[in-house]
Design a protein that fits this description.
Largest sheet: 8 strands, mixed
Shape: elongated
Number of strands: 27
Radius of gyration: 33 Å
């Protein structure tokens, strides 16, 4: 032990005598280890940590595939839910959920808040009991039962001051009085970092359920020991039972649904939550790993130079009786201490880098709240330190603690020049550094080219920074009459249009790239369909007059909707240019043609063709779509069909300004003081978000490439400077 302490003192004394060497080495190691630790923290938090629920290995996402209609991921339907819950052999329980936003009034200012609607089994499946009160039960799920609601911890504290007597009180949600039955604990989060403020029961009437409405993601807890393959087999067994137990929607046949070839695609819930982000994170991990290799090569070069300077010292110690093993152990110990010190510095850098990394992470990166420097990350850092010390410490050991020790005295003269063999190791390390840096720089260049290509794609709208978007919902309990509700929407639109600086306003169920569009099969009157044949699914949305003008999306031919079309419920529609070309050879050929969404619905005349819009982002092809008016005579089983939650698009140079939002809020409240604004963003926000993953990868590869280039330059400089000094 005394000998070990003596060795440590000598090592730290040597570090102190060479402060520039020590500082440069620690900084290079700190940067390399810190970058790797930060990226591994993200990787571990997103991909490796189990979901924060009891026995997460038993949780699965119940999805389906429908190759007949080109759907790889099809959610569940209420009809499936009833059969899976009653006849599933592999499930402990299964539940459905859907996202929502609701108006809360009567408590301070009205506000629209994020919510989820769940069937009664969802929260027990996740296994996190409420902090106060109870979960939903079967009675809460039945239509006609008393309206109930659960609060999440943050909303309970913010809105009600953490009052423990909240259970049993009523709050007004979407114009209805709902009884608060429970409060979820602070640690509760719903799947992919979704932190809803309210939880509502999702009520289905079994007697009115059809074989359709694939709109609800399903989560199940399987029985212990059951595999995903067994669950898929169980679901496949039950799908024919579903088709026999419920009728098809009006205008559709069982054969039509059978032709969709719906099959099981059950997978672990963590895989559903994480999605395909794993590929991105592993690419980043590999890139940052190259930076660490370059840092290790640099440090190895520095240690080689340092060992060459100590060659006579090592030879004298060998002549005085020090064994080669002892000298090798001391050199490795010196490398290990440098590595541990550099890793400690790297942990500090990783903490700051991690905060920056999470802050700039792309929208949709799941499980952000679970990213931290925890025990696995610390073990990873320790492992990196040990591997790094072996990587850069073994080269000087092999070169100078072996058979060459005996020749150190003969080669140590001041007038002797270096042999070619002495240069070889250092030059090899420099070549490796430059090669790795070149790989990262080429990757960064390719990403820059891809990003530039995306920025040149016309998204289908213009000057998105000048378009303010916000969501507004008018509950049925507030305004039961559908036509009166639409007139309120128009009145609000007119008042907003009168705000100074506003050039145009439009309404729609979504704006481009916000992810809210829906799908439906579209039948064309001039096409022949076999009995039960299902036409391709198309995206669709509902809009008001002025919507396209506000976004800057041109009408290729024909005309826009008018308010006369809407109030008279004329059967009209607008289609995208690519759909017109696919069906009728071009925009002009589409005018006057008739389409519909169900075999028993009204035929709607195409009155206009609008330019293609990249609804899913500029990195995706523009999807063919159909646009309907915001009020129609009927749509599926709605008569008349109206949309109570719409997104306002407001074109103004003042977009994003708080003063504009204040005036919009006053305009809305002048019509109805119980209507809150929600989802307030500019269109630029959605446009940038669609490219966020690409830009994030670009930035990270750029950072890795820059670090690699800098470290490579330092290594090259060090070798050349040392060679010149020796000459």
């Amino acid at each position: 032990m005394e000998s070990f302490r003596s060795q440590l003192k000598q090592i730290f004394r040597r570090f102190a005598r060479a402060p520039i060497f020590t500082i440069i080495t620690l900084v290079m190691l700190g940067v390399g280890v810190g970058a790797n630790t930060a990226v591994f923290s993200v990787l571990e938090g997103v991909l490796m940590k189990p979901l924060p629920y009891p026995h997460p290995e038993e949780l699965v996402g119940v999805w389906h595939a429908a190759p007949g209609i080109n759907f790889k991921d099809l959610p569940a339907s209420p009809s499936m839910y009833f059969i899976y819950r009653e006849q599933g052999r592999t499930f402990q329980d299964v539940a459905l959920y859907t996202g929502d936003s609701v108006n809360v009034t009567g408590v301070a200012e009205p506000e629209q808040v994020g919510a989820i609607r769940v069937t009664d089994g969802m929260l027990p499946i996740l296994g996190i009991p409420p902090l106060l009160g109870r979960w939903f039960n079967r009675a809460d799920d039945l239509p006609g039962s008393p309206d109930t609601v659960m609060l999440t911890y943050g909303y309970w504290h913010r809105k009600f001051g953490g009052d423990p007597s909240i259970v049993g009180r009523t709050i007004r949600v979407d114009g209805k009085a709902r009884i608060v039955i429970g409060v979820m604990p602070e640690r509760f989060q719903f799947l992919d970092d979704n932190r809803p403020l309210l939880i509502l029961p999702l009520q289905f009437d079994r007697d009115k359920t059809f074989l359709a409405d694939f709109s609800y993601p399903a989560v199940a807890r399987v029985k212990p020991g059951v595999t995903v393959a067994e669950v898929n087999a169980d679901v496949e067994r039950m799908l024919p039972i579903v088709n026999r137990s419920f009728p098809p929607p009006p205008g559709f046949s069982i054969k039509l649904l059978e032709d969709a070839r719906i099959g099981p695609s059950v997978r672990p819930l963590k895989q559903v939550v994480v999605g395909d982000v794993g590929k991105l994170l592993w690419v980043l991990m590999g890139s940052i790993g190259m930076v660490l290799l370059i840092a290790c090569a640099n440090v190895a070069n520095l240690l080689l130079v340092r060992a060459e300077g100590r060659q006579q010292e090592l030879a004298i110690r060998a002549a005085l009786g020090a064994s080669r093993g002892r000298i090798a152990a001391e050199l490795l110990l010196e490398s290990l201490i440098l590595s541990l010190m550099g890793s400690a510095l790297g942990l500090g850098l990783a903490y700051g880098a991690l905060r920056a990394l999470v802050a700039m992470a792309p929208a949709g990166l799941p499980r952000l709240s679970e990213i931290s420097i925890d025990t696995p990350v610390l073990l990873f850092t320790l492992g990196v330190a040990l591997v790094a010390s072996l990587l850069f410490g073994s080269i000087p050991v092999l070169k100078y603690a072996g058979a060459r020790l005996g020749t150190g005295l003969r080669e140590g003269g001041r007038t002797l020049s270096e042999s070619r063999e002495r240069h070889r190791a250092r030059n090899t390390l420099v070549i490796v550094q430059v090669a790795l840096a070149l790989v990262l720089l080429i990757s960064s260049g390719l990403m820059i080219r891809s990003f530039q290509a995306l920025t040149r794609v016309h998204p289908g709208f213009v000057r998105p920074a000048e378009v303010q978007t916000l969501s507004l919902s008018i509950p049925e309990a507030e305004v039961p009459n559908p036509e009166r509700m639409v007139r309120m929407q128009e009145e609000i639109l007119q008042k907003v249009a009168a705000i100074p600086g506003v050039s145009s306003v439009g309404l729609g169920t979504s704006v481009p790239m916000d992810g809210r569009m829906s799908f439906n099969p579209i039948f064309a009157q001039d096409r022949t369909y076999a009995d039960g044949e299902l036409p391709p699914m198309r995206k669709f949305k509902f809009v008001s007059p002025g919507y396209f003008q506000t976004l800057g999306t041109p009408l290729v031919t024909g005309r826009d909707f008018t308010w006369t079309d809407i109030y008279s419920k004329r059967p009209v529609a607008i289609v995208s240019e690519n759909l017109a070309r696919e069906y009728w050879g071009g925009p002009a050929g589409a005018l006057g043609k008739r389409i519909r969404f169900g075999t028993k619905d009204d035929w709607c005349e195409i009155i206009g063709v609008v330019a293609d819009v990249h609804e899913d982002g500029v990195n995706q092809e523009a999807t063919s779509s159909v646009i309907w008016p915001i009020m129609m005579r009927h749509f599926w089983d709605e008569e008349p069909m109206v949309r109570r939650t719409l997104t306002f698009a407001i074109r103004t140079p003042r977009a994003g300004a708080e003063s504009l939002l204040h005036e919009v809020r006053q305009a809305v409240w002048s019509v109805d003081g119980n209507l809150p604004l929600a989802d307030v963003h500019t269109l630029e926000y959605f446009y940038r978000r669609s490219m966020a993953r690409t830009s994030f990868t670009l930035v990270m590869l750029g950072v890795a490439g820059s670090m690699a280039l800098l470290l490579g330059m330092l290594g090259l400089y060090g070798v050349i400077a040392y060679s010149v000094s020796q000459r």
